[in-house]
Amino acid sequence: MRKRLVILALICVLTASLPACGSQETSSTITIDEKVDESVALSMFVPVGVDLGGTDSFRDLTLAYNKQDSKIRITVDSVSTADGFDDFLEKRLDTKDAVDIFVVNAENVKDIAQKGQFYDLSGLKSFHELTKSAKEQAMVGDIAYSIPLKMAVYVMDVNVSLLKQYDLEVPENYEDFLHCCQVLKKQNITPISLNRWWAMAVPVMARSLYPIYQAENQRQLIDGLNKGDLKIGDYMINGFRMFEEFLKNGYYGEGLTMEKVDAIKANTQDRADFLSSKTAFRFFPIEELKATEMENEDKAICTGIPMLPDGVITLPSISVRLCVNGGSSHLEDSIKFVDYLTSQREELLSSDTSGSLSPFKRPAETKAEVPWKQAVLELLDGGGQIPLEDMNLRFGCWDNTRQLCLKMIGGMSAEDAAKEFNRIQMEEIQAYEEKQALEGGAGGE
Q1: I need a labelling partner for 124 at 20 to 30 A (CA). Which of 93, 177, 184, 341 fits?
Q2: Residue 120 has what DSSP assignment?
Q3: Chain centre distance of CA 91
Q4: What pTM does this model have?
């Protein structure tokens, strides 16, 4: 019997020029004629706006796969994160065969792992071809819950031309950075670009958590934090004290309020101030970098975050996490498609014009196409990293750090911020354990 092979894909996912979809899941259809006796429908669910490597490349790879395995019919549905993608995903995973393949936001990883709903992808060839940092971040407990498609890395942008005006060098450690800030402030220059996210959380986490992630007994420290025997505030106090000093000295500017800062969207005013030389430093994810910003290395360069006594550090993060539902009745076909998709790395990333980095290893002699990206890759290869969100911690760091920094702008002291983080740590650990008991202990721990 002659049938049509149908590949369903949301306009809002595969056509970036059209308006974003709401929470109603509507689909457009692309059809190609094929002879199919029986078709297996695989459901893929992603957030609106997620870039799976570029619209054209993802569509073409999906079509190519269906041509070589003509029994497969793939449907791609989407809801924006703001309209409840995380809740929709949870409901789909709890409903038999409602989703086979999905992209997960960081906030959902621990809950899904606790329910045991991730399929362990460590057997795929592509998993073993990940870089060290990507592989570490693709694990929760002993489960490889994801094959990352892209990596974001948080670094520091340095306005070199502005530093040169005052005989300053690019800071290579914490003392160097403080010296630059002091000299610039005396010249009535605001040293650091400010926004509601990265500008606060990145340096505070880098300053606070490097003793954990540079320690030889890192795993034991993580276990101690998860049990509550070690208090996160004892580590975060260093970053909070630094942030308190930065606020007091006006390194982020003057007259700040919680409301004012929380309204500064990332990569807007902070980027404009940096490019116009109103500020000398900004913290940001490399994927937000526009290539034109780095054309002249005499004006600006990317470097690690100089929060260590003797060096710099980076905060890598998976920006697209591709996963398989462990409870899918189409498990074999789902794994085959993910294996195929993640093996087509050059094609998948060919249309990506952002600063996103590939999570996969490169031959040693391979150089990045632009100097600034090569510099970041070398930083990653050299070690010195803190995960943006450690999926093996039973409490969150990224958003909690941001919220506490905002409260410090409102008047909370560094000591009180550290105590409050201790309270949050214990509260979230208790919630984790209660949920684990409710789920019968299932998960990847």
Answers
A1: 93
A2: -
A3: 23
A4: 0.81
